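In the previous chapter we treated chains in isolation. Here, by contrast, the input contains four separate entities that must be folded as one system, with a combined length of 434 residues.
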Amino acid sequence: MGTGQQRTGGTKEKILAKSLELFASKGFKETTVRDIASSIGLQQGALYNHFKNKDAILMALIDQLMSSAIVTIFEEKEPSELYKRGKALLANIATTFKLLSFDGKNEALFRLMMQEMYKNSDIRDLYHEYFYQQNIKKLSAVFFMMMQEEMIRSSDPLLLANEFLTPLFFYQTQVVLLKLDGKSTSSAVLLFEKHVDYFWKSIRIADKEENGGASYG
Amino acid sequence: MGTGQQRTGGTKEKILAKSLELFASKGFKETTVRDIASSIGLQQGALYNHFKNKDAILMALIDQLMSSAIVTIFEEKEPSELYKRGKALLANIATTFKLLSFDGKNEALFRLMMQEMYKNSDIRDLYHEYFYQQNIKKLSAVFFMMMQEEMIRSSDPLLLANEFLTPLFFYQTQVVLLKLDGKSTSSAVLLFEKHVDYFWKSIRIADKEENGGASYG
DNA sequence: CACTTAAATGAACGGTTGTTCATTTAAGTG
DNA sequence: CACTTAAATGAACAACCGTTCATTTAAGTG
């Protein structure tokens, strides 16, 4: 007894994966336990060997969301290291946002979060704390250091962080929505890079005109 | 016969108003016909004298959404008139966004749209066409004229329109979410105005230094 | 082999859902 | 007044929901 034998063929993981897909595309309430079970070739009752109830499946997915790539935009380094990379850091963040919209699992987690946020205060807190606040704070710390080093014009770091991340978040949403209808995402995708260029040009200290010249004249 | 006598005490409107409230806070599927009926002191069956079924209520609300203030950010004037107002126009748009988050009905329509967008392609189309595309196009026309008149630096008008509207949309969402938890919206609200200042400063042609000086030195 | 036990079955349960409908109520019309 | 008709009632229905459970299956262990 108590040897904790593992006999599972990964059913629990299958349940989570299929539930995520279904919750993301139909919504939590609209997805029935029978939907989930039949999507992996089981009877409804079998699910209750792996989860206490339907809500427990959602909670397990929320846990996944918290440690997912969605909420960890930055690499593991500290702001005091990150700021040195300048525009390349911003470009990297933008690319991360862009790729997340095209990774199946992250996209589903994103859609789940967006839909249930308005009903579920746990998801709302998670969105606020991890998805928004944490990234905003870290990025404003980066901008603060860039200002001290006179890489960028000095202004409100928190505002700058919002100005930079906010459009990325919006474009990410746009891409996800466009994909739902099978529409082209190319023009939305272009905006990711255009935003980085535009943003960096508007904040950098234009001493050296590092690459492209001024766009007017 | 056929005189079309109106005997109603506005029940149909009550149904729509209460349904909107309930759909926005609990979701469409989660709201029962009995919820709606009892919220206006009726029995469930009475609703079917006014709407064919539950879906018809949602569709009626979608029609309201289409003509609501949410999707008509601009005044009725043409871009060739609007552009002359310069920064004041942008400030006005930002204020409109801000106020919409505090108007009960518009806020509810917004929440309904955000929740059901991912499941309902009608709402998704409406969001894309009216809420996003229409405003983006009109604003880029305005920016284009501002460039021709050398009020602002010349660049991609479509990009500029996105750069301006996108943060406003995000802040609007933030305010709505914060209000759901009864949290303070003051710092989010501040960002509306900060954004206008920051944005205008970064695009205007800095010939005359119209008000605030450069922020570094 | 016998024994244990995680996992799957499938019927069954109580509750809730959207919807229907015969009936009643009450307001407008001549 | 009598007549018409929109609106409200409240019980009822069939379908569907999440969940339970006695039972079976099958894999690991000694």
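The longest helix of chain B spans residues 121-148. Residues 3, 5, 7, 32-34, 44-45, 48, 53-54 of chain B lie near DNA strand C (CB under 10 Å from a C1'). Compare these points with the single-chain example from earlier in the chapter.
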